[in-house]
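Supplementary notes (optional reading)

For those who missed the lab, this is the record we used. Protein: Gfo/Idh/MocA family protein. Length: 331 residues.
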Amino acid sequence: MKNVRWGIIGSANIAKKSVIPGIQQSETGEVRAIASRGLEKAQEAAEQLNIPVAYGSYEELLADPEIEAVYIPLPNHLHKEWTIRAAEAGKHILCEKPLALNATEAEEMVEICTKAGVVFAEAFMYRYHPRYTMIQDIIKSGEIGELRGLHGTFTFNNANDKGNVRYKKEWGGGSLYDVGVYPISAARMLLEKEPQATTVNAFFSKDHDNVDMMASGILEFDQGISLTFDCGMWAAFRNVLEIVGTEGRIEVPSAFIGHQNENDHFFVFTQDGRREVEVPMLNQYALQADALGKSILSGEPLPFPASDAVLNMKVLDACLTSAKERRRVEI
């Protein structure tokens, strides 16, 4: 299959450690170039990751006619600008989550990409792993009965790194933006519907530019089903999703960060006991790159179109409003 030639706009850790190796391991993609705000930094990353071309500015990369698609791992407040500039340059785009700072920005980005005729997707890599199709199949089979609720957690402790971009309020910092979006998107995906309201309580830290360092919330869906979740950047590491039914439950111990080993398996608990469901040991970043690659090369529909990112941002907007104003917010 013909390769999609990728360019990387920025040298964030997520790009260097996960997304670039994933594209390089994919069936459809090759990483042709990387750009940073300084040439030396770009050259260092290019040498480290065996990337042929390094650019000292994002503009130079977008001007490269060899580049067909770009990945944008920049701080959240820069997603809109560089997505639009990439679309105007005719590049297909994978943008790191969250897509934007709010749903209004996300809608504008989607509209511009649609007009430009470029493929545009939000980088939620976990959704591309087949284990989530396997989980959906178990839910639909009725093995755990009727769904009653979901609980998701994603927390880690990086609070000592005071200069981290996650702790800059105007840049879209905070735990809801950074990790809360995972259980929120997972609930929407598994339930195949949108929540009606949310209530979120959060800890805003004066030592971290008043971003939310921990948040706990509930998303209300119809039929009395809810997602309860918590997310944090100043708490012990957790990364778990639980799906509860009337006759059993599913526990996903490493719900959002794939390890390509037995840690990616999940468990089903019913009256018959506990069974481990083994899943293929696949690189979810490579799977993500191939989903875009097949859409670019052959026009296959994206499993998760950019319109889904707008809906997720609407939920995130409501969660942030609820946390700041200490009230229930309808979506």
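If you only remember one thing from this example: Residues 90 and 118 are 7 Å apart (CA to CA).
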